[in-house]
Specification:
Layout (H helix, E strand, L loop, with lengths): L5 H7 L8 H19 L6 E9 L5 E3 L11 E4 L2 E3 L3 E2 L5 E3 L7 E8 L6 H21 L4 E4 L2 E4 L12 H7 L8
Antiparallel strand pairs: 1-7, 2-6, 3-4, 3-7, 5-6, 8-9
Helix pairs in contact: 1-3, 2-3, 3-4
Length: about 180
């Protein structure tokens, strides 16, 4: 499921009206997954129940769904409740000093009830660029008009292909890859 609706995407990027609802929704879903992967976090609000996490050698772990709603986090280790932990609600950084390199079960409520405007803008912009590129490059790898030659490059899964303006919009939410 995408981070924005088709209607909201068209409000933000009116040029999307040239595409079908199915094309837009498919591109929104893909763009949403890309944004979450690039930022290293999940944005939509959800209650997580008994998710298995692994702390690092120092007892740290980053929760995927942030911000964490205050007071909703609970931890268990081998069925027993873990009382000694510290969580940064904004970044999702969890520190369990007595549990280095351990598998714990975590339950919490995290994410945004309303997706931030910057994330909506990034998803709508990536959606538009994606659909425009697909329309331009179907079956054509290069074209030449007079002395001007244009070659289309596939985006693949290379994050360097993302536009610098979109990276700037996403920068406040970036935490690295999931």
């Amino acid at each position: 499921m995408g981070l924005i609706t088709t209607t909201r995407a068209i409000e933000i990027q009116p040029a999307l009206e040239a595409f079908s609802t199915a094309e837009i929704q498919t591109a929104i879903d893909s763009a949403s997954k890309f944004v979450e992967s690039w930022c290293g976090r999940i944005f939509s609000l959800e209650t997580v129940v008994n998710e298995v996490i692994r702390t690092d050698q120092f007892g740290y772990h980053f929760l995927a769904r942030t911000p964490v709603i205050s007071g909703t986090l609970s931890l268990t280790f081998e069925g027993a409740s873990v009382e000694a932990f510290v969580v940064n609600n904004n970044s999702g950084e969890l520190y369990c000093p007595g549990y280095p390199d351990r598998y714990l079960k975590v339950s919490y409520q995290g994410g945004y009830a309303t997706i931030p405007a910057g994330i909506e803008l990034a998803v709508a912009s990536i959606t538009l660029r994606m659909l425009e590129r697909l329309k331009m490059s179907v079956g054509i790898s290069a074209k030449e008009i007079g002395s001007v030659k244009t070659q289309f490059v596939g985006a693949g899964d290379n994050y360097s292909q993302i536009d610098q303006s979109i990276k700037a919009i996403l920068a406040p939410y970036w935490r690295g890859s999931l």
